[in-house]
Amino acid sequence: MRSQDLEEMRRIPFFRSVEPGQVEAMLRGAFLQRFPAHVELIHTGEPADFLHVVVEGTVEMFSVHRDRETTLGVSGPGDSFILAAVLFDRPYLQSARALLASRILMVPADAVRQAFAADAGFARAIAENLALAYRGVIKELKNQKLRSGLERLANWLLTHDAENGSTGHFDFPFDKKVLAARLGMAPEVLSRSFAALGAYHVVVHGPSVVIQDVAALRKLAHPCSTIDGTSL
Amino acid sequence: MRSQDLEEMRRIPFFRSVEPGQVEAMLRGAFLQRFPAHVELIHTGEPADFLHVVVEGTVEMFSVHRDRETTLGVSGPGDSFILAAVLFDRPYLQSARALLASRILMVPADAVRQAFAADAGFARAIAENLALAYRGVIKELKNQKLRSGLERLANWLLTHDAENGSTGHFDFPFDKKVLAARLGMAPEVLSRSFAALGAYHVVVHGPSVVIQDVAALRKLAHPCSTIDGTSL
DNA sequence: CGCGAAGTTGATTGCTTTCAAAGGGTGTGG
DNA sequence: CCACACCCTTTGAAAGCAATCAACTTCGCG
Questions:
Q1: End-of-domain residue from the set A100, A129, A145
Q2: Arithmetic mean of pLDDT, A50-68
Q3: Is A82 in contact with A51 (CB distance < 8 Å)?
Q4: Which of A23, A85, A90, A135 is 20 to 30 Å from A166 at the Cα level?
Q5: Which of B29, B35, B33, B27 is nearest to B6 (CA)?
């Protein structure tokens, strides 16, 4: 890894509360790799050899069982994934693929476990990371079990708008196909759902969305801090 | 708390790798409380004042949104719950109610956070706990999204049988109503599902189940270590 | 014996998936 | 520069799984 890259890696939030020496040790054996879109980075069931951290790009976590596939989450810059598997040397429960061309930092599992054992600050940072990840999955489970497809879409639109300045209009960051998978529905259903949102003054033209009446959409979505909040 | 109880608490797996002094400190302000069945122990959205550990009994984690309710998990003796909320002082994402009369150890959140900051061993134990909890929820999410109700039931039967010595027959540890909620289906659907399992030589009489042909049930269930395994 | 909760069974509705086909945009190769 | 292929997206129609409503049975318990 180039020293310029090393500098960049040190600034990853994940390493913030780690002793510099431990960061060095972890980065020494690490790779910073580029992956083109659609490439599978890790595969369900395989042993956890590397902790992965998204430096740039977008990664979809998914899983396949029999002839079904489902998206479990999407990771962006600064997010690590499969930390739990790496820490305790268990097989991956999820697969990951790049949605966009991405740069991924790959830290050998041994080094992570060693730093976890040696550096209490790192151990606490990992605990925090895991706690937030845990709460994220609980929210996803609630979102899935307590809401209809249309409600999930409405809330996703509100959340995404809020994350982008609440302007009421934005472009999709990925294909609608991917959004459908992320929301846990077939692409056809997403299409129909968009049509249904016309009644709530949501206008979709190709990749662009305009929310003309936030209040109306809110009323349909019933956003809730214990499901949607990114902050809690 | 009585000294006899203190002895019992020290043996909780959760405290195993914690310095005795820290355990003392945590237990000093803790309560050991009995709750009758059906009582709600914690409520979604409230601030996390206590870490709860099940000493005896069974607790259901659930959540309500609008007019829908769903079960998110069931905790038994030795399990802690809402650790993530307590650690970082966030509101509970789940509610909890006792399914059976239960004894619950309630440790003040402050004491937990203090021990987390002071004792690296405890911090690591918590990280491990959170990692396993995280993996558990991921499995639950996969179970929910990748399987039909009948498949979830079939797998639950196989898992529960395996946990009880693989004798091929057992009694339900809780009402079928609760099992239905746990599997994410209406009670009526569970009833029909049991009827459907007759074709696979599963016989249900009141609270008792007999699996007469494990192979047949397995073929329907397609158990999978990255969804069902309690060990992974 | 009768109340009440739990469980079963039937009928109906609704959300979602699946299959099928057509429209629309993009990129490549002729 | 056009033609064609390909994929995404949309729309239509049909089928399936699960929820809901309703009625009836069963069982435990006072």
A1: A145
A2: 94
A3: yes
A4: A135
A5: B27
* A158 and A140 within one domain: no
B144·A139 Cβ contact <8 A: no
Residue B97's pLDDT band (boundaries 50, 70, 90)? Answer: very high
CA(B54)–C1'(C30) in Å?
Answer: 73
String of DSSP letters for B208-226: EEEES-HHHHHHHH---TT
Same domain assignment for residues A68 and A138: yes
The nucleotide minimizing the C1' distance to residue B206's CA is C7
A110-137 pLDDT tens trace: 999 999 999 999 999 999 999 999 999 9
**For the segment A65-96, what is each residue's pLDDT rounded down to a tens digit?**
998 999 999 999 999 999 999 999 999 999 99
Q: Give yes or no for residue B230 having a pLDDT over 80.
A: no
DSSP state of B65: E
User: Closest to A93 (Cβ–Cβ): which among B90, B138, B184?
Assistant: B138
Q: What domain range is B122 assigned to?
A: 3-145
> Which residues are CB-neighbours of B129 under 8 A, at least 6 positions away?
B14, B80, B83
Domain termination site, one of B145, B172, B198: B145
Give contacts of A122 with chain B, Cβ < 8 Å.
Answer: none
Pairing of the two strands B202-205 and B208-211: antiparallel
Dihedral angle, C-alpha B26, A16, A136, A64, nearest 10 °: -120
Confidence of residue A232 (pLDDT cuts 50, 70, 90): low
Interface-testing mutation among A61, A135, A228, with chain B (most B C-beta atoms within 10 A): A135
Size of interface A-B (CB pairs under 8 A): 139
Q: Are strands A95-98 and A59-65 parallel, antiparallel or unpaired?
A: antiparallel
Residue A128: CB partners within 8 Å, gap ≥ 6?
Answer: B87, B88
Question: How far away is chain A from the Cα of B31, in angstroms, using its nearest Cα?
Answer: 24
Which among A45, A65, A123 has CB closest to B120? A123
